[in-house]
Automatic annotation (TrEMBL):
KW DNA-binding (keyword) present: yes
Keywords, ordered alphabetically: DNA-binding, Exonuclease, Hydrolase, Nuclease
Protein origin, superkingdom: Eukaryota
One Gene Ontology term from the biological process aspect of the record: DNA replication, Okazaki fragment processing
Organism: Chloropicon primus
GO molecular function ontology, one term from the record: 5'-flap endonuclease activity
Gene3D superfamilies named in the record: 5' to 3' exonuclease, C-terminal subdomain (1.10.150.20), 5'-nuclease (3.40.50.1010)
Occurrences of domain 5'-3' exonuclease (ranges): 1-241
Protein name stated in the entry: Exonuclease
Pfam families: 5_3_exonuc, 5_3_exonuc_N
């Protein structure tokens, strides 16, 4: 999937591959049941597949980031913040950020300069090398959620919860009710401030109860991404130098050796074409 994304044109200027760090995060301190509904990672994935993926990514000389105490989601949100701040300070031209992930938690980051590439199995209209993906944008979100802006997705999850991460939400409130309430009262705080005026009995009772208010606030703390990880934690130098997408310094010898070792020989011509395109881009030639 990663190679497919790198084959999308125009070529990306910057690339980063972000992994979850081992151990607990601040969310586990807030709520001990956070993600407790998930099955443990299978041993073969943890000890064989994931290390091999990291080995291949590093051999491609792509930027890899893991930050202890934070989820990959928070790291990505913080990279986005740094990139947009750099753009605002005139250090970069207009940046268009693509987040390659199916994870709906990233809906809250969508905006004019940030969109998602979500892999799909059924929709073949936007496929690259046989793998289909959907472009999910600010506009798509508004169409799906009654005109709400993407930042309101945090409040939707605060009310409705998220079974994937075992975020509780407020008992009796689902996504449709959450959207309806947000359209009427604007945000979570507006809903809580006007809870006694809510027409639906179940939602009104839940949101006027101490438990409901507490769960809504807790859930918002769990689902809101932390975009304030400092740059000196994220980068060895700075975003522009760390994340620049280029041909490996060893001319790709280590990656091609790994392809032979793992019998990924069919990938060799594709990555060689990719490197040729990178060379052309670096010298200002058209491929």
């Amino acid at each position: 999937m990663l190679l497919v994304l790198l084959e999308i044109r125009p070529l990306p200027k910057y690339v980063s591959v972000v992994f979850d760090s081992k151990g607990k995060t601040f969310r586990h301190d807030l709520y001990k049941e956070y993600k407790q509904n998930r099955q443990p990672t299978p041993d073969d994935l943890r000890t064989e597949v994931f290390p091999r993926i990291k080995e291949l990514v590093r051999a491609m000389q792509l930027n890899v980031i893991e930050v202890p105490g934070y989820e990959a989601d928070d790291v990505i949100a913080s990279i986005c913040r740094t990139a947009l701040e750099s753009q605002g300070q005139g250090k970069e031209g207009r940046l268009e950020i693509d987040l390659a992930t199916p994870d709906k938690d990233f809906f809250q980051l969508l905006g004019p300069d940030i969109r998602m590439l979500r892999p799909q199995k059924k929709n073949r209209d936007s496929s690259v090398n046989g793998i289909a993906y959907d472009v999910y944008s600010d506009r798509t979100f508004r169409e799906d959620y009654g005109g709400l802006c993407p930042t309101k997705f945090v409040d939707i999850q605060a009310l409705a919860g998220d079974t994937a991460d075992n975020v509780p939400g407020v008992r009796g409130i689902g996504p449709k009710t959450a959207v309806k309430l947000l359209l009427e009262y604007e945000d979570l705080q507006g809903i809580l401030d006007n809870a006694t005026s809510i027409k639906g009995k179940v939602a009104r009772n839940a949101l006027t109860s101490e438990e409901g208010v507490s769960l809504a606030k807790l859930s918002k703390s769990l689902v809101e991404l932390d975009c304030k990880i400092p740059d000196d934690v994220l980068f060895r130098d700075k975003l522009e130098s760390d994340l620049t997408f280029k041909k490996p310094d060893d001319e790709g010898r280590e990656l091609l050796r790994l392809f032979r070792e793992y019998d990924f020989k069919t990938l060799t011509p594709r990555v060689e074409t990719l490197w040729q395109d990178l060379d052309h881009a670096a010298t200002g030639e058209s491929s």
